[in-house]
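Practice problem: predict the structure.
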Amino acid sequence: DYFLINGRSGVDSVHDESITIHGKLNEPALVRIVNAGVATHAMHFHGNHLDVLRHDSKPAPHAMRKDTIMMPAGMTKEALLPFKPPPDIWPPIEQWGDELTLSYPMHCHAEMSQTAGGGLYPGGQVSDWILKP
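Answer:
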């Protein structure tokens, strides 16, 4: 009935700084995703595509740039989040200045994980990643 990210779900996970991925423009971050459960999940990142590097500690068989990373039960994947501005961002990056911060959601696309306890929405696997200039 409950689907968690680092032991948190829904509103609790979105506002938990230990779960939110922070980064600066053009400074990629390694993201390790572990599915310790028994259901397949599809982790979807808004704003950037990720480069999947490893599957269960083995190099990815070919370069894979994904916005949704399929996570079968028991799987571990490592991916690089590039922290680049989306191509259609407004205002253009040249006009950002030092104060603009962008926040994008990351959530599971598997419908079962969108709710908690059978109906609380959004109550499942959801978090943010934040891009600073």
